[in-house]
Amino acid sequence: QVQLVESGGGSVQPGGSLRLSCAASERISSINSMGWYRQAPEKQRELVASISSGGNTNYADSVKGRFTISRDNAQNTLYLQMNSLKPEDSAVYYCNLVARVRFNTFQNYWGQGTQVTVSA
């Protein structure tokens, strides 16, 4: 089973920056997409950013221009660069990977999450 491990979370002041990393335990041969989700207390989990196998990116309107998603294929690692952080960005951030395990069969994998807190 593929394991995703997030790191890079922490506590920062408004306007600060953080870089999240997500490392896969093994090489995935058929990745459909990877992304970052976040969930604040008593709120639904929401998509923050995603990147397809072809490199196409998608961002939530609330983070456009501030966050950048990228990947390092050689290291099997996903990143989220977060700049100009706001208090409303505070949440647990989860790495997500969608892979094809068989023809027309896909599997979702989730990391354990990393806490991001933005406050004065």
**Helix/strand class:** mainly beta
Shape descriptor reads: elongated
Q: What is the share of helical residues?
A: under 10%
Largest sheet report: 7 strands, mixed
Oligomer: single chain
Please state the average pLDDT score: 94
Q: What is the string of SSEs from the N terminus onward?
A: EEEEEEEEEEE
User: Which consecutive residue ranges, at least 5 long each, have pLDDT under 50?
Assistant: none
Helix segment tally: 0
Radius of gyration: 14 Å
Q: In angstroms, what separates the terminal alpha carbons?
A: 40 Å
Beta-strand content: over 45%
Tell me how many strands there are: 11
Give a structural overview.
- The chain is an all-beta fold and 120 residues long.
- It is 0% helix and 57% strand.
- It has strands at 4-7, 10-12, 18-24, 31-39, 46-52, 57-59, 67-72, 77-82, 91-102, 105-110, 114-118.
- Strands 2, 4, 5, 6, 9, 10 and 11 form a seven-stranded mixed β-sheet that branches. A four-stranded antiparallel β-sheet has the order 1-3-8-7, with no helix packed on it.
- The radius of gyration is 14 Å and the shape is elongated.
- The termini are far apart.
- The relative contact order is 0.31.
- The model has no long low-confidence stretch (mean pLDDT 94).
